[in-house]
């Protein structure tokens, strides 16, 4: 993997993180998308424009042809797949952002010939960047601290912290029932409001399980590389490793993130 | 209210916040208290020792008799009520702290003749201090930013963000059922893991409702002043303003925090 490309992704993610930080609680301007729980703000759009500009200009200056560079983005209607594709969530945790909860992130995955090879996630409020490269490991770098490798450790279920998302009106009873079953066996359930950042915290041994029944490729792409390189994995609710469908970028996913050796214990609660 | 005492409380809270920040993710040493979901760490104890030292030395240097100063503290077995009482939670969000989720706080309430007159809450990770004084308003001060007054604004239910806690095994079915009922009507539910900090975010128009069925005087004392001065209120689940029992400092409370004019809407979901 070309280190210059991960540097470029980091530059795009951190500059968009700064846009998010600058606009935090400055405006409550937002639009509903599919419903009142699915919203977009002008900051999502600014962040996405910044990322596209930094990545396209940077890739071209590294010698890549602009015609070989494609984007799969939350705020775009049409995705055109190319040899090199960036999978971008310019602001994961828009509801948090618009409500004033300082927990959200910028997510950029990178794929060559439809194979994910790198992921960068930036947390604007804790000045933290997570970066994973296929075959080269995952790392976290917080401002003022040393870069640190991410490696999942084994914990007993009674000390698990579980990221428990609610997704959409059709899945909500399933989810509440599942969380009620798992609650007595673990240390705690949290719903912090950014799936992508939760997956990074899973890679960093903060969460032990992440459960979500309504997410998209751009929520998962970067974090899936970071998690995999740390020793974790995304699964579907049958326990099979999650596979992305490149031909349907708007496909909704149901995911379990955890250590591979924990998935059967997790699924005993979810099904 | 003596400004020197709120300065002292702020000094105690921010120095303990620094202890928490310094010890974050440095150790996973903790002990179970009543169960695996109720834990204490050496950092809770260090924070509490620091607060008691700063407050006692400071009050004595301001001319108050040490024999007039009492403490109600989470980590103490015995509380002795005096003319001046500090109600202290040295680390609200211990499970977050021990799991590595950077969302917790230090909470110090102050009462004269068993009337709460001031509250200070410090967030270690966002370098933010909330302070409320009876009759003088509530304010938030973030490092590098101007002090800002807290005043609740009115929002429609579809844009509400609800802090939805899970508390203990006996209440869990009630809570999940309630949250499942409220979920379709609001923007989102979050469980961030620190009741006290959630109440400060309520006072700052981030949360619109806070629901909890298992908390204590020290979780609520400081935040109740901050919330009240911002125009909010703590209620019980019958809609009556919450009253603290000074003769039973270990009493468990069930609370709804919100704008007074929203409580009947909230209770239509909870009961």
Shape of chain A: globular
Oligomeric state, counting identical vs distinct chains = homodimer
Low-confidence stretches of chain A: none
> What is the alpha-carbon Rg of chain A in Å?
18 Å
Give the H and E element order of chain A. HEEHEEHEEEEEEHEHEHEEH
* Beta-strand residue fraction of chain A: 25-35%
Largest interface: which pair? A-B, 38 and 38 residues
Mean pLDDT of chain A: 93
- Biggest sheet of chain A, open or closed, and with what strands and sense? 7 strands, mixed
Task: Name the helicity range of chain A.
Answer: 25-40%
Q: Find the structural class of chain A using helix and strand composition.
A: alpha+beta
> Whole-Å distance between the termini of chain A?
39 Å
The strand line-up of the biggest sheet of chain A is 3-4-5-6-7-8-9
Number of helical segments of chain A? 7
Number of strands of chain A: 14
What report would you give on this structure?
Two copies of one chain form a homodimer. Chain A is an alpha+beta fold and 271 residues long. Helices cover 32% and strands 28% of the residues of chain A. Chain A has seven helices and 14 strands. Chain A has helices at 3-23, 42-61, 94-99, 172-182, 195-203, 217-229, 263-270; strands at residues 31-35, 38-40, 69-73, 84-92, 105-112, 115-123, 128-133, 137-142, 148-149, 161-164, 188-190, 209-215, 233-235, 253-258. Chain A has a seven-stranded mixed β-sheet. Chain A has a five-stranded mixed β-sheet with strand order 11-10-12-14-13, covered by helices on one side. In chain A, helix 1 runs antiparallel to helix 2 and helix 5 (195-203) packs parallel to helix 6 (217-229). Chain A is globular, with a radius of gyration of 18 Å. In chain A, 48% of the residues are buried. The A-B interface holds A 36-37, 39, 95-96, 99-103, 125-126, 158-159, 161, 164, 166, 169, 172-173, 176-177, 179-180, 183-184, 187-193, 201, 204-207 and B 36-37, 39, 95-96, 99-103, 125-126, 158-159, 161, 164, 166, 169, 172-173, 176-177, 179-180, 183-184, 187-193, 201, 204-207.
């Amino acid at each position: 993997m070309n280190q210059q490309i991960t540097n470029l992704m980091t530059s795009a993610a951190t500059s968009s993180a700064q846009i998010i930080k600058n606009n935090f609680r400055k405006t409550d301007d937002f639009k509903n998308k599919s419903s009142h729980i699915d919203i977009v703000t002008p900051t999502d759009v600014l962040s996405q424009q910044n990322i596209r500009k930094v990545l396209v200009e940077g890739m071209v200056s590294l010698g890549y042809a602009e015609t070989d560079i494609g984007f799969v983005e939350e705020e775009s209607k049409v995705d055109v797949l190319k040899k090199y594709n960036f999978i971008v969530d310019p602001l994961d945790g828009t509801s948090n952002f618009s409500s004033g909860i300082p927990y959200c992130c910028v997510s950029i995955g990178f794929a060559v010939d439809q194979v994910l090879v790198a992921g960068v996630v930036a947390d604007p409020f804790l000045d933290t960047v997570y970066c994973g490269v296929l075959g080269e490991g995952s790392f976290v770098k917080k401002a003022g601290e040393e870069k640190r490798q991410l490696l999942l450790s084994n914990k007993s279920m009674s000390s698990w912290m579980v990221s428990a998302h609610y997704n959409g009106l059709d899945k909500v009873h399933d989810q509440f029932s599942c969380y009620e079953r798992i609650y007595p066996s673990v240390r705690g359930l949290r719903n912090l409001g950014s799936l992508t950042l939760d997956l990074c915290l899973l890679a960093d041994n903060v969460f032990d399980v992440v459960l979500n029944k309504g997410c998209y490729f751009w929520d998962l792409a970067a974090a899936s590389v970071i998690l995999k390189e740390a020793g974790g994995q995304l699964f579907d609710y049958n326990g099979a490793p999650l596979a992305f469908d490149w031909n349907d970028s708007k496909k909704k996913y149901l995911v379990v993130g955890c250590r591979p050796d924990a998935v059967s214990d997790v699924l005993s609660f979810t099904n």
